[in-house]
Amino acid sequence: MSKLIELTIDNQPVAVPAGATLREAALSLGIATPTLCHYPGLATGSNCRLCVVEVHGARALVPACSRPAEAGMQVTTDSERVRRARRTVLELLLGETDTTRAPELLAYARYYGAKADRWPGDPAGRRALPVVADNPFFVRDYAKCILCRRCTEACGEGMQRTFAIAVTGRGSATGIGTGGTGRLTDSPCVFCGNCVGVCPTGALLSLPEHAARAAGAAATERLDWHPAKGFGAAAAAPPAVRTTCAYCGVGCTVELHTHNGRILKAAAPPAVGVNRGSLCVKGRFGHDFVHHLDRLTTPLVRKDGALTPATWDEALDRVAAELTRIRARYGADALAGLASAKCTNEENYLLQKFMRTVIGTHNVDHCARLCHASSVAAVSRALGSTAMSNSIGELRHDIDCLLVTGSNTTENHPVIALEMKAAIARGARLILVEPRRIELAGLSTYWLRQRPGSDVAVFNGMARVIINEGLADAEFIARRTEGFAELRAAVQPFTPARVAELSGVDPDDLVAAARLYATSRAAGIFWGMGISQHRNGTDAALTLCNLALLTGQIGRPGTGLNPLRGQNNVQGASDMGCLPNLLPGYVPVGERTGHARLAELWGVALPAERGLTATEVTEAMGGQIKGLYVMGENPLLTDPNLNHARECFARLEFLVVQDIFLSETAAIADVVLPALSFAEKDGTFTNTERRVQRVRRVRDGPGQSRADHGILCALARRLGAAWQYDSAAAIFAEIRQAVPDYAGISYDRIEQEGLCWPCPSDDHPGTPYLFAASFPRGRGRLHPVPLIAAAELPDADYPLCLTTGRVLYHWHGGVLSRRSAGLDAICPEAMVELNPADAAALGVTDGQMVRVRSRRGEVTARADLTARVDQGTVFMTFHFSEAAANLLTIDALDPIAKIPEFKVCAVRVEPLDQPG
Amino acid sequence: MTLLLRRLGQADPTDLAAYRAAGGYSALSRALSLGAAAIIAELEQSGLCGRGGAAFPAAIKWDGVRRAAADQKYVVLNGDESEPGTFKDRTLMEADPFTLIEAMTIAAYAVGAGRGYAYVRGEYALAAERLGAAIAAARRAGLLGEDILGAGLAFDIELRQGAGAYVSGEETALFASIEGGRGEPRTKPPFPTTHGLFGRPTLIHNVETLANVPPIVLHGGAWYAGLGRNGAAGVKLFCLSGHVARPGVYEAPLGIPLAELLDHAGGVTGRLQAVLLGGAAGAFVPPPLLATPLSPPALQAAGLTLGSGAVMVLNDTVDLWQVALQLARFFAHESCGKCVPCRLGTARQAELVAAVAAGGGRGDEPVRLQELGAVMADASICGLGQTASWPVLSLLRHFGPPGEGRV
Question: What is this model's ipTM?
Fold first, then answer.
């Protein structure tokens, strides 16, 4: 950094840091260099040769994009020789390729006076290549390909590391393609579309954009370029709005381009946000659910047993009347509210405020109960905190050991997985503790393949190795933790041999993994629902906390305890206090100062007793609970033991659901209120790393649909509260008062990029990693944890272990992703993953329909014979209502967090006759 | 008596005992007693330049790799001899593999490399077989491995075969091929001396270049330099083909006039029209330039190149534009497709040459070929695109379009 290189460019002296390229040096003088292959964040092969400049003394021209500046260089960027080369390169491309959708190339061509007919190509050559439409997401129109190779770089080391496409052939026949059949669907492609995002010529286009352009509905933007100005503003740029993806908790920054209210494409600006230009298949191609015909467009009220269209007044009057009636007859605690990890912070804040201050109950919860409640409980007990301790960006630079467990990160948090893969590529090592042979297994240094339900044994075993081999950080333990002696005693029975018996993990690998984790400079733990969704999920998460505290792998960049949150705003919904025991900002119900502060802010007295969790509410239906208000959730697909849950819901006196689709839950409601999707409203989401990010309105909602916060305000006013919020920003202003960690965050500050909480004041830069100096509870607490067996293990009647999860192409209950044309086309049905050895014993062939039965229910689905699952284990997703895995799962609850054991139950599998 | 071809036909090329009996490995012993700095000094004094076509001084490369700090360094033997009309490296690899192994070992010692790769053109099955057998024999005898000649020198060689792409003879493309990627060149700088194979400092030499190393170490740089003529240093292998009485590989002093070299091969059969000197990326030499000494500076002054040492003799029965068309098509076919000027420039060049060769065209082809050739030379990534226009442009310069100013 300190050493500057001095050179001259176009006779102007300039000094640049060592390592700067000639392109960067020229830019510092305000001289732009044309390029078609260079893209921010991707390595450049300098293959378009448009950036060439003249360096005094060099025989040939040199590429400014990659050539480092050297002391004393004399560079000329605009000689006749340079112009001739640039013009000829452009003319060669214009002659060979269909450049009609290449606005940058055309802008350069205009500036350099390149003529399209100077070097005509073979008409039967590139221009004659057919459009390839071999997948449900995007087309490949190689007549428009200039072979800049941004796409292969994006698919490879630059972003995705999937390596599905590569350069094929040579000379004029050079192309981009896959191995094998050449079809993307037969290749390793995961349809992230990062190739589409970086293509400069329209050779790769999303299907909607391709269709719109083919119909002439969306014109190619016209750009102009000048070396002193770069690209000017586009003359006909299609409208694009920057917002935050609504699928998972990664919180990718996405720019939605629309045409006549329909989303044409989703793009990701380079170098911005968590994703820095990358997206996954859902984020890039899965947002078409917002204009699906199934969208609710009018309120529905049940009349004579049927849901019937109604006016807003009719519907809201009915809701207000029923809530009032139930509260009057049974008391406020007969009502409960389910907030939504899909909705904005503003909406969730209002829902819990509605339940607490308008209705008068703490019976409010959300789906985190079903995903990470146990993680939250554990981290809260160990550290006094409730969130991911470190930030995603630290994977890029700081981490050198990753311990990933219970997380199929490449499918469930795809863009975080990109950072993990990049970290591994630069030398970081991966310890994977996971029953299934997921993609990360192939990248791991140690893969500990434990049997489902034995996590506690594995991590206690690692703790024992660390303690007994003297690898624990004694100084850290003494200064910042408590409970070491008890833990040391408690883990002694977990010898490597014993752990092998309990979990199936190789003893040598266990020891080696423990040593690697403990001795790495910066080691971070990442986990998902494979840890949390057990009846001892809190215990398992506590054993992870123990590892971090024993080794001091926390409180520094690249370390920490990082539960990867599932939903786009599950962190925010918790932050907003959509929990029965915690008020906004994690103030415990009844805690005197915080409780009083919020009561004063809201101007009402709050109940002193905590409310019921979502799982407890279900059990209490017909008993204590008579009415339920559901905002954007679908418990009748996502609860465990669905048959039982359906019986419970049937006992409610009143159910109101506010959603964008008629979900399984909405279908049995008494009133259904049509809400807006993320693309139709303003607000904020808080991602898994505590980053508060803007959500912006891109299009109008269909029909009479309304923003959830608008619905809640209207309802509150009917129930006598004088709520007046004229915008999402007005609600956020109140959130800043209610939640101290959000006090320094404002829409202005996060206009460009979000901030990680805690951010207590206007001048605070946000907090990417926590606990540098202390833990919220003071000392970190080490917890002795015994191993409790899963509630239901395989036996003679039900000999296989069912574990559930998700796939890349679908989301949660499938309400959104199954209404995305591309996602549903590529993954249309539920599959049962079955080990080939088990399948052979059962007489099941690949692709055959099977019946999966548990003590609670049965489903039929297609068998997928794969070694991804070990012998004795079957895997199903819970995305598909027609083969709902949760008909099988067990409703055994973690005693602390009340989270159900989705990850282990006993089933049997029977082949069905082949149809026909 | 020849130097480089001394063992041609002498014995079983893979018989290590015979090689040692004939003085083999005495150069390595001497190298070990000289030390790295002295070896490189001898090399500098010898004036040895690269024999693959670029004629870069060998000692500068050795010194560069020696000075580069890294956890691993490599020595690579470039046996991807693909230049049309060139067959000297094949002869060396088939006839004298141990000299190449000994030379690589000396180089490894001098630059501090622990691993070597011998990269042999895919079509050269016999060369690969013999080199492989010789490497195995040397390894069995402790002449490759952890402790060579008991001197604590650790070095071993892996044999790799190409897959038929001309461009893989370009050094950075060759690295990509060894690394398991597609044979495609990278932008230089950085140069292989600091960022070569697997990103590490790498000494890469053409087969013939390395074959000169053991004699230089044994007899000294000054002796070697004195073998040349007309101010050039050392000896060179020339590949004579076409219309000469005795085609084949000839060793001659560097600096020998072209006409004299042709006499060695028994002279031209028929009436000489031109010599294509330097291979496909070479130039057509008209008869008036036959007196030019075959040394890089003299040839450069005449607008010619020695290239890899290919000397293709063409009498007046040959249509030079048909030859140029074959060469242009060769380049269009062999362009790796990475950079625009080469990928599309070679294609357009072949079409223009076809038009000229057929006697048709619009008449502006010569001007367009010159313009295109200038941009290809200026803007292509590697030597393939940079030199693909040379034969065509030299034909235009010295002979003109068909029917116009034929010599």
Answer: 0.94
